[in-house]
Amino acid sequence: MRHLPLFASLHDRRCLVVGGGAVAERRAKLLLEAGARVTVLAPEISPNIEALAAEHDGLALERAPFGGEGVDAYWLVVAASGDPAVNAAVAAAAEKAKRFCNVVDDPERCSFIMPAIVDRDPVTIAIASSGLSPVLSRWVKGLVESLLPQRLGSLADLAGVWRERARAALPDPDQRRRFWERVVNGRVAEQCFGGAVEAAEDTLRRMLEAERTGEDRSEAQGEAWLVGAGPGRPDLITLRGRQLLAAADVVLYDRLAAPELLKFARREAEIVCVGKTPRHKSISQAEINALLVRLVREGKRVCRLKGGDPLVFGRGGEEIEALVEAGLPFQIVPGVSAVEGCAAYAGIPLTLRDRSQAVVIATGHTKDHGAADLASFRPGQTLALYMGVGQYEQIAAELLAAGHSLKTPAAIVERGTTDAQRVIRTSLARLAEARDRFRVSSPALLLVGPTAALAERYAWFAAGRLEVLDGGAGESLARVS
Questions:
Q1: pTM, entire model
Q2: For the segment 294-335, what is each residue's pLDDT rounded down to a tens digit?
Q3: In whole angstroms, what is the distance from residue 421 CA to residue 463 CA?
């Protein structure tokens, strides 16, 4: 270990920053966030630092060169002048005054280093590479940021409020440690992370009383988390979704959720596939609802991992209704929907000024497998159709009967956002022909409207797997400058 990590209390303590440019500004902001009273010393000071001083009473400006004196008046010193000679003089003066000094981009002269920081106040995580590679430190910071809940600090605050009460109620240190382990790994933590701090405090109160009296120590009930897994690409899941997936006791996952996501589940978690495959016998929605309710009633934390967004043709509403009817708690974590993901990865704007002003989202079939009612779709809009690959003939016929042109651009996005993505650009007149010629299979999203013609022009992902059966579709949209 080349440096001993320390967390300094700088509240209302004086710190010196030598330098007046962008780097000095960043260092001054960081010290101000820690509550320090900061002096910036430099012959020339940037307008940004001047503006910062106008906003903060704790920032003082001195327009003068560094003279080597007065360093002992400060707790910490930062040399950020951009001039190696000046920085060396600052470091020497700090060493003589026995003050810790950070010299930007000169680790050999530093007596302390500025780490990359993950701030979940009051939880603070510092990451450093002993000054050898700040870029590497920031990369590690990014990984840590992706794993930690944004509201981690609220759990720490709650634990701080209850720390002495827990000590009084549970004098035995081992018992108290086990109690807090259950708090940070259980329902109290998840309620805090979900923003339900009052509910979390009530749960903690009941848990502490049960622990004190020796009653059943299990938490009263579980919780369901309806998590959007995104449209197929595993890195499109939200941070919150990934965090809940990692905390679940049971994962119920759909066929369209990326299998790679399951590696983020706990090793001890029960993993259950509840995906439904078209035209094949599989678990029914009623059976899924019943399973979800049963597991939550058993006290399990259940991550219901659903492809796309849970509430956009994901039947999440039906599962919510079952949980509400049973009086069970749940959270909903939105995901990147198939419409958003497939359109973006196909290079097709859902809306575009002067070309598409609205988006109509529908399914390509109804419960009786007939074509959906598409009468609300108008020229100058984008129609996005889930499912219904087998109904393209009926879909095209209904749109043509409603007055849409034979040349209306259409694009089929098959397995969108994944490494197997394929885009077929065609026209409404040749939609079913394109499906048959290129042997399109589900999952596939159909986009109809003026901007669908841009699939070829704006292709950026898997551009080599773009097929065209045009029939004049491109003629209906002027070249976009």
A1: 0.71
A2: 999 998 999 999 999 999 998 999 999 999 999 999 999 999
A3: 9
Whether 321 and 347 have beta carbons less than 8 Å apart is answered as no
HEC string of the chain equals CCCCCCCCCCCCCEEEEECCCHHHHHHHHHHHHCCCEEEEEECCCCHHHHHHHHHCCCEEEEECCCCCCCHHHCCEEEECCCCHHHHHHHHHHHHHHCCEEEECCCHHHCCCCCCEEEEECCEEEEECCCCCCHHHHHHHHHHHHHHCCCCHHHHHHHHHHHHHHHHHHCCCHHHHHHHHHHHHHCHHHHHHHCCCHHHHHHHHHHHHHHHHHCCCCCCCCCEEEEEECECCCHHHCCHHHHHHHHHCCEEEECCCCCHHHHHHCCCCCEEEECCCCCCCCCCCHHHHHHHHHHHHHCCCEEEEEECECCCCCCCHHHHHHHHHHHCCCEEEECCCCHHHHHHHHCCCCCCECCCECCEEEEECCCCCCCCCCCCCCCCCCEEEEECCHHHHHHHHHHHHHCCCCCCCEEEEEECCCCCCCEEEEEEHHHHHHHHHHCCCCCCEEEEECHHHHHHCCCCCCCHHHEEEECCCHHHHCCCCC
pLDDT, one tens digit per residue, over 141-181 is 998 988 889 999 999 999 999 999 999 999 998 889 889 98
For residue range 213-268, list pLDDT tens digits in order. Answer: 887 555 556 899 999 999 999 999 998 999 899 889 999 999 888 899 999 998 88
Just list the catalytic residues: 254, 276
Asked whether the CA dihedral 193, 194, 198, 201 is positive or negative, the reply is: negative
Q: If 0-12 CB within 10 Å is exposed, 13-18 middle and 19+ buried, where does residue 480 land?
A: middle
